[in-house]
């Protein structure tokens, strides 16, 4: 049976401290129940799946997962905070994550960095790689700065140089009356955020400047980008005066430069994703342990009748191992 590698899961350390001054914190309600708080506002309930290795391992065994990449929950990024505070928070979370997962070789921890300070972000990813992290998770933007910002590009170039895989997760979606119902920020805002950031890498000329040794993966099937790639190409050719930006080629010629996870839930959507990015660029993710994730892990890949056995094996493990630098 093919090994299954899940590259998209999250952790909330049970030992996360209250850093004060509006930082997210964890309200412990019982041995099995906690609430992520932002100030005095309830953000998300979590249980032992978020912090207990034994619970996670049992769920992995149920789903046939051999390796699990464990990344921070994006609400803790702190990109809107002063850089010195974000450095402190990143170090605390990254160290507590290693302590939580210590002794379990089926977990591959990814760190977070203070992305608003590129130099500090490079220093933290170096520290974390030396300490035992396998890569880094970043948000898709820092305020109004997208992934083509000069400072973020410097960080991505550093990750390429040191061989750190980068997992990009959407976060900090716009709100408002039209988006604060039905989880619309998650259902529409997240796909749009990811789509915009993929375009920023392409039209901002980042892929033309950063070496192809950069291993980059986008969450949630690269958002709405695969569905609208034809529109982006059409605009690049027809309105190049406004659309081309710094890119040397149309968007469709850059799809080999990044991975995307399989958190799309429907075989038809997975087929579009594989057709768009290629069978070598899609890998399994679940968004465990959150309720909008996929269980059992890899179900959409197993249910996709259009995949050959070789393609299915690539999506279940082979592509993930390449992204992680293990193949």
Report what the structure shows.
The chain has 327 residues and is an alpha/beta fold. The chain has one domain: TIM Barrel. Helices cover 40% and strands 17% of the residues. The protein is built from 11 helices and 11 strands. The strands form 2 sheets. The protein has an 8-stranded parallel β-sheet with strand order 1-5-6-7-8-9-10-11. The protein has a 3-stranded antiparallel β-sheet with strand order 2-3-4, with no helix packed on it. Helix 2 packs parallel to helix 3. It is globular and about 55 Å long.
CA-atom Rg in angstroms:
19 Å
Number of helices: 11
Order of helices and strands: EEEEHEHEHEHEHHEHHEHEHH
* Largest sheet composition: 8 strands, parallel
Tell me the span between the first and last alpha carbons: 18 Å
Give the spatial strand order of the biggest sheet: 1-5-6-7-8-9-10-11
- What would you say the CATH architecture is? Alpha-Beta Barrel
Just give the CATH class. Alpha Beta
The total number of structural domains is 1
Q: Give the overall silhouette.
A: globular
Number of separate strands? 11
Briefly note the CATH topology name. TIM Barrel
Strand content: 15-25%
* Residue windows where pLDDT falls under 50 for at least 5 positions: none
* Average pLDDT rating: 95
Overall structural class, as computed from helix and strand content, comes to alpha/beta
Give the fraction of residues assigned to helices. 25-40%
Oligomer, anyone? single chain
Subunit structure: Monomer.
GO molecular function, one term: metal ion binding
Family: Belongs to the metallo-dependent hydrolases superfamily. ACMSD family.
Protein name: 2-amino-3-carboxymuconate-6-semialdehyde decarboxylase
